[in-house]
Amino acid sequence: MTELVFKGKEFVYNHHLAVPFRPLVPHPEKGIGPVALDGNLIIHGDNLHALKALLPLYAGKVDCIFIDPPYNTGNEGWCYNDNVNAPMIRQWLEANPVGIEDGLRHDKWCAMMWPRLRLLFDLLSNDGVIFICIDDNELYSLRLMLDELSQSSSNWIGTIVWKNVTDNNPTRIAVEHEYIICFSKDKNSVEKIWKSKLSDVKDLLVRIGSEFAVEHPDPEEMQAAYTAWFREHRNELWPLDRYKYIDADGVYTGSQSVHNPGREGYRYDVIHPKTGKPCKQPLMGYRFPEETMHDLLAHDKILFGEDHEKIIELKVYAKDFLDKLPSVIELDGRNAAYELRQLFPEQKKAFDNPKPTQLVDKILSYATRKDSIVLDSFAGSGTTAHAVMNLNQKDEGNRKFILIECENYADELTAERVRRVISGVPNSRGDEYKTGLGETFTYCTLGDPIELDKVLTGENLPPYAGLGAALFHMATNHALDPSALREDDFYLGSTAGQHVWLIYKPDLDWLKSPEAALTLARAKAFAAMDPDKKHLVFAPARFVSQKMLAEQNIPVEFVPLPFALYRIDRS
C-alpha cells in the first residue's frame, strides 16, 4: 500500500491522542425541545475538539459520515489552527489564511485532515461508511490518506462523480464536476447491495397510477389515457422509462424474471388468453413451480404478448421499484442557493457554495437505515441535518444527526436553518418550506478541557456525566450509554468484561472528604451487583488495599482519579 508523505506528518500522526476531552455544554435556549445528548445535536466549536468530545458517547456508533471539507483551492480563506507542539507547525499558525501562493498549502491541508479523519474513523461503526466531498485539488491526497487510515485500499466503496455545473467558457477541458469519495471502516461488514425506495419519478408514477384508476375505471380507457401521457413524458421518466403499462394496481412494466437462469427449470403450459394456445417457453424453462404460476395468473400478475409466440413476463410495479446509487449524479449545484433563499428570504446570499439537500438526501437514502446516526463535522449551512429530516419524513425514519461547525455562524446560520426547517418559514416563497418538519435538536458548545491531574486542585471541575463518559471511554474503549448511568450510585455502565464506577462529585470539599474514598463496604456493595464480573472503580482515594480485596475475593480494582489517564485497563 502506497504511503502518503507530507510535511508535518510525524507531528500530527498521533495528535488526536493529545487533544483533551471536553464536555458538551447544552444551551437549551438555542435548541428545540428537551436537552438530549443522545438525540439530534449541533455543536459549535473546533471540529477536532468536538470530535474528541463525542468519543465517550459515540465511539463506534456513527453509521454514516458526510463531510464537505475545504477543497484547498487557495481561494477559500481556511486557516490552520491546530495547536501541535512542533516549531514548524507553530509557524504555520502565523501564516493564515492558507492562500493560493502558499507553497505548503497541500501539506497544511493534509496535516489538518489527518487527525480529524483519525477521530472520524474511531466514531464510525464497523458497518459504517464515510462520504467526503472533494475536487481535483486534493482528490489523490485524500484517497491515499483514506487508504492508510483505514489500513487497506480494499475499504474503498467507490467514487461518485457529481456533475453540478455547465461550463461554457472557452478552455481546454471544461470542469463540470466534483467528487464524493465513499470509504468504509470494514468493507466486509457493509451491506453488499445498496437500494433505495425513494425516487421522485417513482412517486410521480404511483400518483399518476392512482389518479388514472379513478378517472378511467374501464381498463382499456385507462391504458389508452396512460399510453398518451407516457409518450408525452417518457424523456422525463428515467430510470422508469420502461413502465408503459397500467392497471387497477398501478403503473408497471414487464420483467423477464419468469426465466430460470443458468439451468433447467420447470416445464408446463401457460395458455394465452386470446389465442388459446400455449405460450412460448423460456429457453431454460420457468423459474416458478406450476402452483406459483397459477397463483400469479389468478392475481393478474402475468403480462402476455399480442399472441402466444411471445414469452410471458412478470408484472413489476413502479410502487415496488428500488433504485441503485449511480457513480454519476447530475444535479444542478445552483439548487442549493435556491433552497437557502427560500429558507432565508430576508437575505440575498446566506452562504457560499452550499450543497443541495437533494444530493445528500439521495446518498443517505442508500447508505443509512431508518435508525442511523449521521455525522457532519464540516456542517456549513446545515444541509446534512436538513437532508436527514427530509429523509425521516419520506420514509417515517428516526435517523439522528450530529453537526459540528467551528465558525461564528454556527448559531445564526447552521442552527437557524435547522430551526426553520423544523418550525417552518411562513414567509418563504416556496410552499415546501412554509410548514415545518417538527423534529428537535440540542445546541451545544465545548466546555473546559477535562484534565484529571487537576481534579483535586479544584480547577475547572467537570460535571459527573462529562467526566464519567471520558473515563468510561478511556477505560473500555467503548462509548458510554447515558441511559445506564446512575450518578447517585456512582455507576457508569458495563461492557462484556467489566462494570465501571466513578466516585465523584464536582465539589472540591466533598472530593477531599472521606465520602469520596473507596471503602471495603463500598467495594462489597459494588461487587454484589454482579460477583462474576470485574469492577473498575475510579475514586480520589481509598481506605482498603488491593491486597485485602484480593484476599476476600472481591473483584474490584481501584484506579486513583488524578492518575486515571495513566492507569487504564482496556480488557
From TrEMBL:
Keywords: Methyltransferase, S-adenosyl-L-methionine, Transferase. This is site-specific DNA-methyltransferase (adenine-specific). One of its GO terms (biological process) is methylation. GO terms for molecular function: DNA binding; N-methyltransferase activity; site-specific DNA-methyltransferase (adenine-specific) activity. Pfam families: N6_N4_Mtase. PROSITE patterns: N6_MTASE. InterPro entries: DNA_methylase_N4/N6, DNA_methylase_N6_adenine_CS, N4/N6-MTase_EcoPI_Mod-like, SAM-dependent_MTases_sf. It is an enzyme of class 2 (transferase). Belongs to the N(4)/N(6)-methyltransferase family. Its EC number is 2.1.1.72. It comes from the Bacteria. Residues 62-410 form the DNA methylase N-4/N-6 domain. It catalyses: a 2'-deoxyadenosine in DNA + S-adenosyl-L-methionine = an N(6)-methyl-2'-deoxyadenosine in DNA + S-adenosyl-L-homocysteine + H(+).
